[in-house]
């Protein structure tokens, strides 16, 4: 049970993120939802590479008597997560920038009122 | 030099994108010249690459090592390096994207005159091109995700580029939200597959995928993400906004991004998942979605007043036709009429890109001449804008699938194969196509024919530099319509064969058979 806790957290984060993006009206909250969804996916990737009692895979800084590669965590998911975090920051920055511009034009962040494009 | 073409075709647009702000400081004319030279070089590299693929078969390019298996720890035995793998389908998509990007760049140079921030515009355009080409060339799942995100970030920044109009902002944030949610689902399923098979490599995954529950879940997530990005109903609503509100050169590049997502769909379904995964309802679901998309696209085109929006909904319907071919091929397997369906679908990717591209260029010319896109305020433009009217006529016949234009050639293949599956499907498809013809004739009438409006008397054809890309696309439409067998033999068949031969794709990386 206890080792499945991260996966439960992943599922919760993804559900919360999806809920916020679909049902919230405020644009900032929708952006937060997308970010939470992204944290969920990142946590999932990190959890995949985890091994019980293992250390970070930095060759020059291993504790004495570490068995290579048996007691190292997987480096690939961590590399993936780093890339994904960087991309996530870019997406977040762009979305917030557009949200600021939308607020300047419409004077509101309510998506039900920001709907000139329909049909 | 030749063996580094796959890296160069990505590196060159990236380099151009980051040099653009520096170049722009020298002079605006030099910036235009630089953009033009660079897109020309990218096009030449693309054509060389396609030629290499067609003459020598699958090209494998490993970053940082001569062979994909080299220098991996011997305990792993799995290629962990980033590889580019270009087969017939990848080469075909490179051609499609390069046609669109080249004409878009050609059109953009005279289209934007006094606009500020053009450095950033060209930088983003080249970044988008790099993202699209990367999606089409890569042989690595995670790399596909990265390029998908590069393409969607730069595309949404481009869509929202003219921030003085609030509609563009709305379209931009919609596009970004949809694509980032889609990309995150894609990443989630990449994680699932990595956790199960320890591989990110498409070939390695294709070899090891079996029919487990996790694989099915991953396939569904990937399909959801890519269908969303390809603008298939019920997640089509971002597409008309994005296409209609962006400026025409941007729209052309966004079309290329949409088609690249469709490519991703084909690659995932037929190369990686198809032989081993067995989900009974999936082909029927895909066909149903495609019919809904065609229906929504055709009927929504009917009620639009804005010229670009009407064209964009027609674009939704065209994506539905491509998916119909894909669904039929999934249903029947890639043999017999299934192969014909796939041929039609892949050929329609090219034709849809050209037809839609030309329609948006025409709409851009109309907007440039009249500063008006509402069809109620337009009329009688054919007298003043002869060339534009003729190209619009060509494009509308092509996109509603009338002979002798290219749209007919590919749609006929799709009708033929769906008829073999179930006659009702092809009847619906043909009816939607006829409806589209009727709608487009009405649009043509209300924009170009009828009485001349007094405030539009000084409308003129756009400058010659903008006519050239429209002329190129019109010639392509007529050429592909009259000699479809040429394109099918040279371009489409290698693409279809590379999808049939999924084992060849795998063995090019791993070796053996």
Structure overview:
The complex is a heterodimer of chains A (119) and B (513). With 119 residues, chain A is mainly α. In chain A, 61% of the residues lie in helices and 0% in strands. Chain B is mostly helical and 513 residues long. Chain B has a domain of 203 residues. Chain B has 19 helices and 2 strands. Chain B is globular and about 70 Å long. The two termini of chain B are 30 Å apart. Chains A and B meet through helix 2 and helix 3 of A and helix 5, helix 6 and helix 9 of B.
Topology:
The complex is a heterodimer of chains A (119) and B (513).
Chain A: H1 5-23, H2 27-48, H3 75-106
Helix pairs in contact in A: 1-2, 2-3
Chain B: H1 5-26, H2 28-56, E1 59-62, E2 83-86, H3 88-111, H4 118-137, H5 141-159, H6 166-197, H7 202-208, H8 213-229, H9 238-245, H10 248-273, H11 282-302, H12 307-332, H13 337-370, H14 386-399, H15 406-421, H16 423-448, H17 464-482, H18 484-500, H19 502-510
Antiparallel strand pairs in B: 1-2
Q: How is the largest sheet of chain B built, in terms of strand order?
A: 1-2
Output the helix-strand order of chain A: HHH
Proportion of helical residues of chain A: 55-70%
Helix and strand element order of chain B: HHEEHHHHHHHHHHHHHHHHH
Structural class by secondary-structure content of chain A:
mainly alpha
Structural class of chain B: mainly alpha
Task: List descriptors.
heterodimer, A: 119 residues, mainly alpha, Helix Hairpins, 3 helices, B: 513 residues, two-stranded antiparallel ribbon, globular
Q: Could you write a compact summary of the structure shown?
A:
Chain A is mainly α. Chain A contains three helices and no strands. Chain A has one domain: Helix Hairpins (Orthogonal Bundle), CATH 1.10.287.
């Amino acid at each position: 049970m206890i080792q499945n806790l991260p996966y439960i957290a992943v599922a919760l984060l993804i559900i919360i993120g999806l809920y916020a993006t679909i049902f919230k009206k405020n644009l900032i909250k929708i952006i937060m939802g997308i970010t939470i969804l992204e944290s969920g996916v990142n946590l999932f990737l990190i959890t995949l590479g985890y091994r019980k009692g293992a250390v970070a895979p930095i060759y020059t800084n291993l504790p004495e008597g570490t068995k290579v590669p048996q007691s190292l965590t997987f480096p690939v998911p961590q590399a993936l997560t780093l890339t994904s975090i960087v991309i996530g920051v870019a997406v977040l920055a762009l979305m917030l920038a557009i949200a600021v511009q939308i607020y300047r034009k419409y004077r509101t962040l309510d998506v039900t009122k920001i709907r000139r494009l329909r049909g | 030099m030749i063996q580094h073409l796959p890296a160069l075709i990505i590196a060159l647009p990236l380099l151009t994108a980051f040099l653009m702000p520096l170049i722009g400081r020298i002079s605006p004319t030099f910036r235009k010249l630089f953009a033009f030279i660079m897109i020309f070089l990218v096009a030449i590299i693309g054509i060389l690459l396609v030629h290499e693929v067609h003459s020598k078969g699958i090209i494998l390019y490993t970053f940082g090592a001569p062979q994909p298996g080299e220098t991996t720890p011997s305990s792993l035995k799995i290629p962990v390096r980033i590889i580019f793998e270009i087969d017939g389908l990848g080469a075909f998509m490179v051609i499609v994207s390069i046609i669109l990007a080249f004409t878009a760049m050609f059109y953009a140079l005279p289209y934007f005159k006094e606009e500020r921030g053009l450095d950033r515009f060209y930088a983003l355009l080249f970044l988008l091109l790099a993202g699209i080409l990367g999606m089409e060339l890569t042989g690595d799942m995670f790399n596909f995700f990265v390029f998908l995100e590069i393409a969607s970030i730069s595309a949404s920044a481009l869509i929202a580029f003219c921030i003085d109009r609030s509609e563009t902002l709305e379209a931009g944030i919609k596009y970004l939200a949809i694509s980032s949610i889609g990309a995150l689902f894609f990443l989630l399923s990449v994680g699932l597959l990595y956790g199960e098979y320890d591989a990110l490599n498409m070939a390695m995954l294709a070899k090891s995928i079996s029919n487990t529950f996790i694989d099915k879940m991953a396939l569904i997530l990937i399909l959801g993400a890519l269908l969303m990005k390809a603008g298939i109903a019920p997640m089509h609503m971002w597409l008309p906004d994005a296409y209609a509100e962006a400026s025409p050169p941007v729209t052309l590049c966004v079309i290329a991004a949409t088609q690249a997502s469709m490519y991703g769909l084909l690659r995932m379904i037929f190369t990686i998942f198809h032989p081993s995964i067995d989900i009974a309802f999936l082909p029927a679901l895909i066909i149903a979605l495609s019919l809904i998309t065609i229906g929504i696209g055709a009927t929504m085109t009917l009620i639009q007043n804005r010229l670009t929006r009407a064209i964009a909904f027609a674009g939704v319907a065209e994506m539905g036709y491509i998916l119909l071919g894909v669904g039929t091929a999934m249903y029947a397997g890639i043999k017999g009429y299934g192969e014909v369906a796939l041929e039609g679908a892949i050929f329609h990717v090219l034709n849809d890109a050209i037809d839609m591209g030309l329609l948006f260029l025409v709409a851009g010319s109309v907007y440039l001449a009249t500063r008006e896109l509402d069809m109620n305020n337009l009329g009688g433009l054919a007298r003043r804008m002869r060339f534009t009217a003729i190209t619009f006529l060509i494009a509308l016949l092509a996109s509603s699938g009338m002979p002798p234009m290219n749209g007919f050639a590919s749609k006929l293949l799709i009708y033929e194969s769906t008829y073999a599956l179930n006659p009702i499907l092809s009847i619906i498809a043909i009816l939607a196509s006829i409806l589209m013809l009727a709608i487009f004739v009405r649009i043509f009438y209300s924009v170009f024919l009828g009485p001349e409006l007094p405030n539009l008397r000084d409308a003129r054809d756009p400058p010659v530099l903008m006519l050239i890309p429209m002329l190129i696309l019109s010639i392509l439409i007529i050429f592909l319509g009259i000699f479809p067998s040429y394109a099918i033999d040279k371009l489409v068949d290698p693409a279809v064969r590379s999808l049939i031969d999924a084992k060849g794709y795998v063995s090019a990386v791993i070796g053996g058979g």
